[in-house]
Records
---
Amino acid sequence: MHKITMLGTGLIGNFYTAVLMGQRSCDKVLVACAATEGEAKPFAEKYGIPRWTTSIEDAVNDPETDLVVVGLPNHLHKRAVLAAAKVKKAVLCTKPLGRNAEEAKEMLAAVEKAGIFSGYLEDLVYTPKTLKAIESVSKGVLGKVLWTRSREAHPGPHSDWFWKKELSGGGAIVDMGCHCIEIGRNFIGKDVKPLEVMCWADTQVHPIEAEDSAVGLIRYESGAIGQFEVAWTFRGGMDLRDEVSGTEGTIWLNHWLRTGFEMFTCVGQGGYVAEKAEGDTGWLFPVGDELSALGYTDMFTDMLNSLDKGTQPMETFYDGYIINAIIDASYRSAKSKKWEPIKLDIWRGAGKKTQQIAHVDYDKDHLLVKKEVMPDGKIKLILKDKKTGKITQKFINIY
């Protein structure tokens, strides 16, 4: 049983608390912290939390709690994590870990110096579909991973602080690119070093200083490319999709707009449909178990089980730091319009993994470029001469 301090009572705080108070049932949130009494008190009453406060330090220092969960706006992450490290309490922090890599590195150093358990709450790598896909890729189902694509797009975040660059650290890239980048890392391999980024970003719709749309390419040491697409400009709900392409196969994932539950209504259902849904009439795509579908359930199960066992969770503060470093390079690239190197002061991955292309021999003189069945039933082979490099084709009659 863990006794928990919950920092933050907004959308993410509600999701986190609903899982923590329901999944394992033995864990209890004993303290809730929000910016105002008007936010903290109703939240505590809703979940039956015995104590509430508007002070981060008072909440962290509560003598009964042993675990701090940070669900605060981005500019408060470092303050909360350092407060937990100071009193040597285990801490879990929502995404992104910091507003930039320097903040993330400072938080990583603090928890490691304090010798406390820490976990990075990156929920979208814990969705049931994503976990299954990661397992399949790790078993070699797709062969060598060549390219990943992760997309998150919706009409924009819920709270005002997201839209203030000085508080959030940026716009759609830091808000949602952190999800997409880490999904790609899990498929490509976390021990494969990310080298450089090419990114386009712009403010297309909203009257804000930060970007509301971006597309980026991340080049990895293995030769793989991770692509992310993020937007606060997408209409029609929340679009969450991932793709993985390898030498031996492909995976497509659609997490939200096509959930397998589709409903049409003229009168509306009179309330909440799903996160980022823009209305409750017409064609709707409700979600059977939103907490599970977005990864929160499996995420906290992994975090708390790891805490109990004294092992590392799937997502760590180190992962959060790597993501922040990639995001920093993305912002530099969006400004320079060039490929920008990813600056990693800390790298704990494997040694250098150079790009390797697996060639297939057709015979002693030729490499196989491609094999396909044509409309007439014949098999066409595209071949490359090993000595001359000449490309030719030949047909095989299978009858």
---
Amino acid sequence: MPRRFRDALARPGLQAIAEIKRRSPSAGDIRPDADPAVIAPAYAAAGAAAISVLVDERFGGSWDDLRAARAAAPEAVLLAKGFFTTADHLRAAKEAGADAALLLLRDLADDECARLLRVAGDLGLETLVEAHDRLELDRAASLDAPVIGINARDLATFEIDRRGQLELVAGAPRDRVVVAESGIVSRAQGAAAELAGTDAILVGSTLMRAPDPAAKLRELLSRPLVKVCGLTRQEDLDVAAEAGADLAGFVLAPESPRATDAVLPVPETMLAVAVWVGDAGDADADLDQVHERANGAVRGRDGVLLRDGEQVARLLDLPWDGEDPAHWESAAAAKGRIVLAGKLAADNVGEAIRRVRPWAVDASSRLEAEPGIKDHDAVRAYVEAARSA
């Protein structure tokens, strides 16, 4: 059977399922006048790997919404989302134009889900099998679900548990396509799911609340992420966050002129990065950045970004006391996720991004009034230049 849904989500880089819904049981009305015929093609143009359409009346949806999305975006990959428990539900989804349908393990016993998976296969319909805890994740794996969704929202209490979701994503079978669902409002939160091992994020309310849902989708998927490093003061962190930085770096190497004693609490829309020399220690950070030791210098040139001790990206930097004319060229040729550093600021970060296409950019020394003290105007200008490049 064709695997349009699975294959679209499995493409390189972080993908997105962009959702169309008018309301939710937890939040009430979100966008009551949402028109699938307008939003679906806009999502497709903005880079959505798939489009989720709520067809349940509790979310202000209907099968006509799915039909409208299919007519307006004939090439898009469509996911029918509702509380499907019967073969008739799946037939209705297929007839309305869906490529895939949601199956909630919360509502289905294993034998029921297995039967619906077989029915879906016979119909040429793919599935998103949704779990929200370890037991359900294990069930999804045992059922050989090709695409597994992990919902951060408890559908009974409506509470969001992002940390628990990321733990489940990290423990999901690597031979499946994994989708992180619910609660993603920033690029950094999407990146956290990406680094934990998700292939795609499903975003609904965040997009529906935005003045321009398609523009918000582009923002969530856009790269590079923007890191401000060498933060030592709360007021500097606040400016970086307000400016729109995604990553906040805190140097925990005492020999550095930018050393700090601890990682400051960052807003939930950002990720904290603890920067070490030699070996990573213990810190309350989302990620660790580790540089090798170097004779005669505070640290070595390059480093790695770790999540729970596992490498998830490489940092490529200039020598602190020298220049490398081929730095951007060698960085552009490097494989995998690259964090580009080395004398970046507002005046050159745009060119660096265009030439290297990194996963993230990292600046510190040229954003300072003095070591460890940020120039707020320089921080704002750098973040704006990086995000608009």
---
Amino acid sequence: MTTEATGMGVPTGTAALQESARRHLWRHFAPVGGDDELPVFVRGDGCSLWDTEGRRHLDALSSLFCVNAGHGRAELAEAAGAQARELAYATTWDTAHPRAIELAERIAGLAPGDLDRVFFTSGGSESVESALKLARAHHRLRGEPSRVKVIARELAYHGTTFGALSATGLPSARTPFEPMMPGGCHVPHTDLYRAPEGRDPLWAADAIEKRILFEGPGTVAAVILEPVQNSGGCLPPPPGYFARARDICDRHGVLLISDDTICGWGRLGTWFGAQRFDLVPDIITTAKGLTSAYVPMGAMIVSERVAEPFVESGEPFAHGLTFGGHPVAAAVALANLDVIEREDLLGHVRRHEADLQAALEGLFDIPIVGDVRGAGYFWGIELVADQATREPFSPEVAYELTERVLGPALRRRRLICRAADRGYPVIQLAPPLIAGPEEFAEIGAILREVLTEAAAR
């Protein structure tokens, strides 16, 4: 392939970059090759990204639920550069370094309850993987080695590594790689939109206990739940759900893991999604917004109760990651937390949550808009064949709608959000925490055009 290239051999120009991507870049969750219209982003600022053609795109998804503080934050880039010049790498295996220590102490101060121990990872899947291993190791040290199973919710996505994938309840993610690691069990999620009239709103929480009893309490290590479930379209819990789940886990000696990979770092207007619902879990898994995605980093935050057997026995948790607690990532995370605190982005989300909700609920006059749900800056719009009866689209039509109609239409109008068919067809939105009414009005206007056209088809 002959292309115009920079001095480092990288092709320039949109067509050349797209061709090079098709030939060499194996993108994630995407067809190999293909996709002539692949956007190539070259610059970001605030809630906007610009592509190689100079076109502005409104980032209404924080790119992948992660650029919480917005694009173009010079202070985060400067923190990375300063740390790399001072100390580019040190491990947290048999040594430590100041940034990891400072960040761990700071996170412990923000986390609920006695979650005071912080184990760093490179991302969300690694955080979940670490938590599942820790749960097994915790129970083994307490003399209950048969506690190896993990209970998660149907459709829930917890990551792509094999342990996390075994907890994931999304068939499209699991099926290509089956058989899974043993021990993954699933219970219903909290679909409030389709709940039968008169059903106990806490039935989905009680289903957790039924599954524990079915499996045998002595075999269950942990229950893992997202504060607002991502897959399925931003499924919030009914009031009292997490209190009931906490009580069930306590009564049966099961650890409760809050997967805050998306819901943490201000996404729901609180530092951790668990805090939005007054939950004190045993373990929090997190990533994404910890650094606002300026560099990869995740963490597993652990309660003193879970850590106690390791402290008492002196036995290490035999698990580690090369880049866990990386100095540059830790420095960026500290600078990111400074931005969130200095600009009161948690308060900003709480003040403007209703504005975002109203912008989306203003679309109810479009016949295919069935439900609008979520919390903070994390919302989903479920699309239906019939508004009055809540009749869903057939799987074939749902796929056509999200992949062939909405996806290309949103791309043409340069609105970055997610049109997905995971359970039901939904459009998901999670703008940077700096977004406000101006961005919400633009989101609403673009969605109105796209959904009106889709409804007509």
